[in-house]
């Protein structure tokens, strides 16, 4: 598959080049590309529906272990398409929220591969992912207050959970832009790459993650999500349920057997 820009058609890929969202399988990863470069990949109803559908595919296919979200044409996303919104289009999907992602509870890890602008809703898409890889020339901002709004697609909720409160408030109240390097300093960017290399780096990370037990990966996401919502005693109670389920799994037995036999495990997701 191609390693920058929009993935070309490949096995299991979306061959409709003009689709607002395209998908392509790369090993165990599903690359989900927002494909409206002429509109700086702004999110309209078509993009929201496309991302929601791509997440459904990711969740349903056992051969897919990790999702990677990127934007076509060197821009991640400029956020909500205000022209489409003015026409009455909704960029929300019931049960999944803004862009078909902001409120979705996915079991499989998601990585944002950010090139260029990730503004407003674009930044919120990245924050909805579990990891963020950003090119050195990437720029992040939540400028909604400059338009009389707030970052309602998860930005005002998630950013204070990702970085220190006062620094999050500075970005939310001023709408200032932040470089990828500053994002790494603050802690919402995992890795900064040379320009044009965010997707290859994200795919390498996806491959490393995909080498681990899929049930355990899903359990990690579930426990972290619960810990955000519950007090500590309740979170430990919920975690015990996840551990009990893992204890009954064939993958745990395979992991132990592979360790004792000094070989790579063969995960089945059961």
Automatic annotation (TrEMBL):
Q: Which Pfam families match?
A: ECH_1
- Name the domain of life this protein comes from: Bacteria
Residue ranges for the region (Disordered) are: 1-20
**Record-linked SUPFAM superfamilies:** ClpP/crotonase (SSF52096)
Q: Which UniProt keywords apply?
A: Lipid metabolism, Lyase
Recorded family membership? Belongs to the enoyl-CoA hydratase/isomerase family.
- What name does this protein carry? Crotonase/enoyl-CoA hydratase family protein
What is the protein's species of origin?
Streptomyces lichenis
């Amino acid at each position: 598959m191609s390693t920058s820009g929009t993935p070309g058609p490949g096995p299991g890929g979306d061959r409709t080049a003009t689709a607002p969202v395209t998908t392509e399988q790369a090993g165990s990863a599903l690359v989900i590309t927002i494909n409206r470069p002429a509109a700086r990949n702004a999110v309209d109803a078509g993009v929201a529906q496309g991302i929601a559908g791509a997440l459904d595919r990711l969740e349903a296919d056992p051969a897919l272990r990790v999702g990677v979200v990127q934007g076509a044409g060197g821009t991640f996303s400029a956020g909500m398409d205000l022209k489409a919104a003015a026409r009455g289009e909704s960029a929300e999907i019931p049960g999944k929220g803004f862009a078909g992602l902001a409120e979705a509870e996915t079991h499989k890890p998601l990585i944002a591969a950010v090139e260029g602008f990730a503004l407003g809703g674009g930044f919120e898409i990245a924050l909805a992912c579990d990891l963020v890889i950003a090119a050195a020339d990437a720029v992040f901002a939540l400028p909604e207050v400059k338009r009389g709004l707030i970052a309602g697609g998860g930005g005002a909720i998630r950013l204070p959970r990702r970085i220190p409160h006062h620094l999050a408030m500075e970005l939310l109240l001023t709408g200032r832009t932040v470089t990828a390097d500053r994002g790494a300093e603050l802690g919402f960017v995992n890795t900064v790459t040379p320009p044009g290399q965010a997707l290859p780096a994200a795919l390498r990370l996806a491959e490393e993650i995909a080498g681990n037990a899929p049930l355990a990966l899903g359990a990690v996401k579930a426990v972290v999500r619960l810990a955000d919502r519950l007090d500590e005693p309740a979170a430990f109670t919920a975690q015990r349920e996840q551990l009990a389920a893992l204890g009954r799994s064939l993958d745990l037995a395979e992991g132990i057997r592979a360790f004792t036999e000094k070989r790579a495990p063969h995960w089945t997701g059961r």
